[in-house]
């Protein structure tokens, strides 16, 4: 079967550029996220394939400089690759986060619920702008953040809380799953 030059130049080449760009930018996004999370061993491999795919896509764009659809495919692949990379990272839910909870309400039920779920905490009596408060600090796996937030909303809905990334934590009480399980959650989300 012979593909006409028009179909090749105006459909297939832009589609290949789009897909290549989607893949290399997805890998670039994941590479940057893995660098920030401290996953040093996988980053060089991701970088290798990212640049290899980028070179292939760039060669196609330069070989078809007169084809304006190649430029749109390049830009569209970049935008979609960024989005796909962020979605994959979101599904992986790698790393840990610190949740800081400040409440002036009774928090015994919340603390008991956190202990029941095996989330470690540090509880500090403090003074806020409006009087005495409890500050509750908990470092949790990122996959467990929504669970903790739902406990906050159930037991202390008016509590102030903030969530931030933690690069590394040791010697605490963690409800941990191995990092490899995160990849399995992406492949088999309902397991």
Description:
The protein is of the alpha+beta class and 191 residues long. It has two domains: 88 residues; 92 residues, 2-Layer Sandwich (Alpha-Beta Plaits), CATH 3.30.70.120. 56% of the residues lie in helices and 17% in strands. The chain has six helices and four strands, in the order αααβαββαβα. It has a four-stranded antiparallel sheet with strand order 2-3-1-4, with helices on one face. Helix 1 packs antiparallel against helix 2. The longest helix is centred in the N-terminal third of the chain and has 33 residues. The radius of gyration is 23 Å and the shape is elongated. The protein starts with a helix and ends with a helix.
List the helices and strands and how they pair.
Blueprint: H1 5-37, H2 43-63, H3 68-92, E1 96-103, H4 108-116, E2 122-128, E3 131-141, H5 145-155, E4 160-166, H6 180-187
Helix pairs in contact: 1-2, 1-3, 4-5
Instruction: Return the CATH class of the largest domain.
Output: Alpha Beta
Main sheet attributes: strand count, strand direction, barrel closure: 4 strands, antiparallel
Structural class by SSE content: alpha+beta
CATH topology name of the largest domain, in short, is Alpha-Beta Plaits
Oligomer: single chain
Apparent shape: elongated
């Amino acid at each position: 079967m012979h593909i006409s030059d028009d179909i090749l130049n105006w459909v297939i080449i832009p589609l290949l550029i789009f897909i290549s760009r989607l893949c290399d930018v997805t890998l670039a996004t994941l590479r940057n996220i893995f660098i920030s999370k401290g996953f040093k061993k996988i980053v060089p491999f991701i970088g290798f394939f990212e640049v290899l795919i980028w070179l292939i896509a760039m060669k196609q764009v330069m070989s078809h400089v007169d084809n304006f659809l190649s430029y749109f495919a390049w830009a569209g692949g970049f935008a979609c690759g960024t989005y796909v990379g962020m979605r994959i990272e979101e599904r992986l839910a790698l790393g840990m986060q610190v949740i800081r909870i400040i409440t002036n309400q009774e928090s015994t039920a919340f603390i008991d619920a956190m202990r029941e779920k095996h989330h470690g905490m540090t509880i500090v009596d403090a003074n806020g702008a409006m009087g005495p408060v409890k500050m509750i600090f908990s470092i949790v796996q990122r996959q467990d953040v929504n669970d903790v937030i739902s406990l906050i909303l159930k037991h202390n809905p008016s509590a102030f809380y903030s969530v931030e990334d933690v690069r590394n934590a040791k010697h605490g009480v963690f409800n941990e799953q191995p990092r490899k399980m995160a990849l399995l959650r992406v492949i088999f989300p309902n397991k």
